[in-house]
Amino acid sequence: MAMSGIALTVPALMMMSLRTMGLFPQAKAPKLMVELSCVGFGLYLGLPLSVATFPSLCKVKGSTLEPEFAQHEEVWYNRGK
């Protein structure tokens, strides 16, 4: 949710403000570069926030895992980075 909100909102606000200030290019190639830069910046902000939303440490009941882990009541694991 955080990533999609930021990735959709930030580029739109950046391009809208560039148009309001009269700095948005009209030619095809520069316009494409500005749009791609705005979307890239939105993803640059949104991706770390969306990854940070989910916990990196999780726990699961040992009885739901393989037999060697079933002896433990709960097992903590790192989801990775």
Shape: rod-shaped
Total count of domains: 1
Biggest sheet details: 2 strands, antiparallel
Q: How far do the termini sit from each other?
A: 19 Å
- Based on helices, strands and strand pairing, what is the structural class? alpha+beta
The beta-strand count equals 2
User: What string gives the helices and strands in order?
Assistant: HHEE
Query: Order of strands across the widest beta sheet?
Result: 1-2
Provide mean pLDDT, rounded.
89
What is the count of DSSP helices, taking H or I runs of 4+ residues? 2
> Which strand-content bin applies to the residues?
5-15%
Show unreliable segments: none
Indicate the radius of gyration in whole angstroms.
22 Å
Helix content bin: 55-70%
Give a description of the structure:
The structure is a single chain. By secondary structure, this protein is an alpha+beta fold. It has one domain (2-78). Helix content is 57%, strand content 12%. The chain is built from 2 helices and 2 strands. It has a two-stranded antiparallel sheet. Helix 1 runs antiparallel to helix 2. It starts with a helix and ends with a strand.
Topology:
Layout: H1 2-21, H2 28-53, E1 57-61, E2 74-78
Antiparallel strand pairs: 1-2
Helix pairs in contact: 1-2
Descriptors:
alpha+beta, single chain, 81 residues, two-stranded antiparallel sheet
Give the gist of this structure:
The protein has two helices and two strands. It has 81 residues and is of the alpha+beta class.
